[in-house]
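Question: Now follow the chain.
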Amino acid sequence: MSASSPLIAHPVPTAIPQHLIVDFDVYNPTSDAEHFHQAFVDFQRATKSPLVWTAHHGGHWIAVGGRDVYNLYADHERFSSRHYFVPATPEQGTLGAFTLDPPDHGPFRAFLNTGMSPKIVTSKIPLVRQLAIDLAERAAGRGGCDFLAEFADVLALTVFLGLVDLPFSDREKLGALVEMAARDPDPEHRIGGIGKIAEYLLPYINQRRAHPGDDLLSHAVNADIGGRQITLEEAIGASIHLMGAGLDTVSSLFSFVILFLARNPEFRRRLIENPDLIPTAATELIRRFPVVVMVRQVRADMEYLGVDLRKGEMVAIPTAFYNLDPSIYERPMDVDLNRGAGKVLTFGNGPHRCPGSILGRNELVIGLQEWLKRIPNFSVAPGATISVVGGTVAKILSLPLVW
C-alpha cells in the first residue's frame, strides 16, 4: 500500500462505509518496477471486499476481484468510458472512441478496426522485423544499452508513426507528450499534455482533411460518422486517441518482459534454444505483465456488488487484478509455457478492447526473436535501480542492460 499524497488525497465522503476505505494508489502502488505487479497481488489477497474506496486521485472506487474487473471493462450500460483517468476532469474533452460509449462509439471505432486489421498488420511485419534487426545489431556491439530508450521505445514509436505517416524525427517529442498525458501525477499537467498533443497534430489534421492519404491518421480525420463527415473537433479527439493508444502500451509491456528475461536466465535460455516457443511465451508474458489501469464512471445510482454507488463516481479497474488473480490463473506470478492462457485483460475487453492488440503482440514476438538472436546473454547493469511510474499505462523509466 502507498502513502497518501497531498496532491491527490481527498476527504472521504461520509456515505462511504469505514470498512471499505483503503490506502492504495492504483497508479503507483510502488516505485520499484521489480515488485510492481506483486503489489497488486498483495493488495488483492489482503482485500476481502469486491469494491473498496481510496482517497487517492480525487477519491474513487477500486474493483478488486478479477472477474468483476473483466466484466466492468465491457459493461457500458452501467459504467461509462467518458473519462480517461482519475480524477475525472471536464477539461479532458472527448478522445474519439476511447471516451465514447456505444452506440456513439461505433463509427469512431470503425476506422481503427480497418486500419489495424490483420491484413494491414501482416503488411507491416517486414518493417517491424527489419527495424528490430537494425536496433538489436546496433546495440549488440556496444556491450550494453538502455533497453527502453534504444530499443523498445524506438521500435514501437517508429512502427506507429509509419502507420499514421508522421515524421520519425518527432518520435522523442511525441513520446514525451504521451508520457505527460498518461503518467504525470498532476491531473492538470495530464490535461496539458493532451492539449499539447492536439497542438502538434492540428496542422497535420488540417492537411490530411484537405488532401487525405492512405494512412491511419487520414482515415481518422475523414471518417464517416453516421452519414456525415467527422467534425474538426471530433477529428482532433480521435487523433489524440490514436497517439495515446499507439505510442505507449507496447514499449511499456516489452520493458517488463525484458526485465523478467534479464533476471531469469534459465527461462531465457529455453527461448534461445527453442525459438519456436517465442510466440507461446509472448502470450503468457502478455498475461503476466499487464500495465494498464482504466477507469469507468457510474452512470446512475445503483447497488453493485453489495455497495451503494452514486452517479458520477469513478471506479478504477486495474488489468493486473484479472491477469494475476489466483482464482482465474493458478500460480499467476509464474511464467508457465504450458498454461495455455485463454482470456487476458492486458489489451482490454468489450467494445473498447485495443484494436492494436494484434500489432502489439507481433511487435513483442518479433522483437524477442531478433533481440535474442543477437544479444542472448544480458543482465541488468550492476547497481541499477529499476523504477516504474504508474498512470493509465505503467512504464519503467530506464532499463540499463549489459552483456
User: Anything to note?
Assistant: The longest strand covers residues 293-298.
